[in-house]
Amino acid sequence: MKSFIKKISLFLLLSIVVLATIVLGSKYIVKSKSSFKINEDITKLIIGHSHSECSVDDSLLDNSINLSASGESYFYNYQKLKKVLEENKQINSVFIEFSNSQIDSVMDDWIWGFEKMSYYLQYYSPFLSSEDFNLLFENNSTDLISSYSIATRKHLYRIINGDYYLTDEIGSYADSRLSKINELMAKNRFNSTISKSQSLSTTNLTYLRKMIDLCRENKVEVFLLRSPQHPLYADLINEPVFQNVLKSQFSDVDLLDFNDMSFPNSYYLDFHHVNYKGAQQFTRLLNELINTDLLSFSNKQELIDKSLEHFNSSNL
Questions:
Q1: Can you give the pLDDT at residue 276?
Q2: Which of 20, 82, 130, 199 could be a cystine partner for 105, CB 3.0 to 4.6 Å?
Q3: Does residue 18 have a pLDDT over 60?
Q4: Are 85 and 34 in contact (CB under 8 A)?
């Protein structure tokens, strides 16, 4: 019996060692070989979740790249930003999407929920700090282990294929040709995605601050950006909370707020997002404003508001 127990114990120990070697070894290889390089003429970076993913057509914004990704919280935005700034010293301006949903406590699940960890850790797990890892572990250790299993499998595929260029996989402009507004209105689907209590995600906001600080440490200008949203967008219910967070926590950062930019329903994908028609109009206006020195103005929002007033009145 003792001999049997020893054999089982040895087998388990060897299995753990082999598994740990595979996990750590594949992670090390991916970390050391991954590339986040972008073209040298790119100086503007847009980053955020699906709102900026759908709204900023980087083919229309001079010298820019949109690396926003649907469903990506500031926690994962931060991991991306670290690597992109590290490998692309020519970037001098970063625009971070800042919308009503991103302040809410539902974002916690976007950080350590299984759906998000199991998807995003395949890209970012090699670059997590011990603080980042501990945050996930303390809040959802069971799903973190499962997510690392998925990430390791993806890492092995990457190693086998020799595919270490991640920039094309971590975000881009989403060219949506759909418009669901009339259908959603007909079915009375105005449901909000934020919590009923309108409570905050302190963790998500902490990582937004980390992103801002990271930009400044690298002498990169950083701006918050709120893309156009449909006036019937249900998450606008927390607008007073949103404005309070902006004033109390991020008053040192300029918000370029285009929330009041108005379009026909056919220019929206849904209440949250514009489609390609709205994106073209928004990006052209943003590009025009930047090219007329918006970013050097002390009161940037005043200039934006005047431009929006003119745009909205001319498109009635």
A1: 98
A2: 199
A3: no
A4: no
Asked if 102 contacts 74 with a C-beta cutoff of 8 angstroms, the reply is: yes
The C-alpha atoms of residue 91 and residue 73 are separated, in whole angstroms, by 22
Residues in Cβ contact with 108 at an 8 Å cutoff, skipping those fewer than 6 apart: 139, 201, 203, 204
Residue 59's SS3 state is coil
**Is residue 194 within 8 Å of residue 106, measured between CB atoms?**
yes
d(CA 154, CA 102): 28
Tokens 């009161």 sit on residue = 299
The residues pairing with 36 across neighbouring beta strands, listed in sequence order, are: none
Give the Cα separation of 190 and 230 in Å (integer): 11
Q: Which amino acid is at 267?
A: Y
Radius of gyration of the chain (CA): 22
Cβ 263 vs Cβ 40: under 8 Å: no
Judge contact between 257 and 301, C-beta under 8 A. yes
- For residue 293, the domain's CATH number is 3.40.50
12 located within any domain = no
pLDDT for residue 15 is more than 50: no
Total domains, the chain:
1
Residue that the structure tokens 């931060």 belong to: 78
The verdict on residue 18 lying in a domain is no
* Structural contact between residues 259 and 278, judged by C-beta atoms closer than 8 angstroms: no
Alpha-carbon gap, residue 52 to 295, rounded angstroms = 19
Orientation of helix 74-87 relative to helix 202-217, angle to 10°: 10
Question: Could you give the CA distance from residue 85 to residue 79 in angstroms, rounded to a whole number?
Answer: 10
Whether residue 94 contacts residue 222, with contact meaning beta carbons closer than 8 Å, is answered with yes
Q: What is the rounded CA–CA span in Å between residue 87 and residue 37?
A: 6
> Is residue 30 domain-resident?
yes
| Verdict on whether the full-model pTM lies above 0.85 | yes
Residue numbers of the domain that contains 161? 26-314
